[in-house]
Write a structure and sequence with these properties.
The complex is a heterodimer of chains A (about 200) and B (about 210).
Chain A (H helix, E strand, L loop, with lengths): L1 H13 L2 H20 L5 H15 L3 H24 L4 H19 L6 H19 L6 H32 L3 H28 L1
Chain B lengths: L2 H29 L11 H14 L1 H17 L3 H22 L6 H17 L6 H22 L6 H23 L5 H25 L4
Helix pairs in contact in B: 2-7, 3-4, 3-5, 3-7, 3-8, 4-6, 5-6, 5-8
The chains are: A mainly alpha (about 200), B mainly alpha (about 210).
Chain lengths: ~200, ~210
Amino acid sequence: MRIASFAAALWLGLMPNAAFAHLASTRFGEFYGGLLHPYSTLTHLLPWLALGLLGGLQSPATARWVLLAFPLAVAVGATLGSWLPPWPPVDTLNLLSFIVLGLGAALALRLGRPAFLGVAALFGISHGYANGIVELSGSERLLYIGGVACAAYVLIALVTAAAQTLAQQRQWGSIAVRAAGSWVVAVGLIFGGFTLLALGA
Amino acid sequence: MTGLCKQHALKRLCTLPRGAGLCLGLIALLGAGDVFAHAEVGVAGGLASGFLHPVYGLDHLVAMVAVGLWGAQLGNPAIWMLPITFPVVMAIGGLLGVAGVPVPLIEVGISASALALGAMVALNMRPPLALAAALVGVFAIFHGHAHGTELPSAVNPLAYGVGFVISTGLLHLAGIALGVMTRWPAGDKAVRILGGGIAALGAFFLAGSVGFI
């Protein structure tokens, strides 16, 4: 039974390339493109992870608002990025997000709701902007933006929930969350420095 | 439907999702090529080279384990302070390496870190926290510089940075996990012996880096 199901899986996996491409290009292709784009780019993935870690160290009443605010901000940013030309300060802001969000998590900063949501919205817009694709139009653009916003929601919801649970239910949990935040700061410092030096050179 | 039939139907229902999951996994894996056209290039290579950089250098490896061991030996708050602050200080050293700012005697500093930190563990030294943090911080600069120097030539510099930071963090974690043994008298001795071993390796590397051997 197992061998049969494995063989069937292999056959299904190898066969439907054309069908998959057909589906992707006619219906939800750009949605999936938007969904996967932030996950396949470390420059987005790491700061988003850090925002989730920071959310995990806030009060649950504050943290749950980010589930709404961040994906909306990303959608707004992606909409702007899909209409307007690339704007270099956005990339600098995104590099800064590694350090600000990672440092916030490493120091276990307890921010008030307006401050936390403000930071999440600012970086949501900047990361959304960088995810925008000018070449898309009409429904393709809409699907793509929807995909990016869904990616933001899924990642933030999962990481914030995991970090909240760890920090509240395990003695070592908040240390682990803070250590992960310091890793993001470290990566941000080195990569940010490298990028800025390369730009200046 | 007889009980047997019900059982059979239930079994089929239970086994179906596994097969379906496998199918979906394979389809996603094989069909995802188009979508990943957006992806950064060289992520896997950069991650692997960054991750392996601290592991391949035995001097890096033992010094990082010693940081974790010493943190565990010192107890609160060092046990959590060192793993949180070390990556950030190391990143500053890495930044100097990336910028090409020379730090003298890098190899000597890395070997000396293994010797000194191993000795601290072996002798169960308990200096004030600020002094311990300063000592570890100075050594973090040397380690970070060595990793940072390699970064610009990495396939994917960001992935390389992620790799070496995670690798370093996991080595600290390994040290902390081994350091938990200090709760028991025999374990405490074992940790100190381990520290002695690290110090001996550090002395060996130090002798090599200054040209004695």
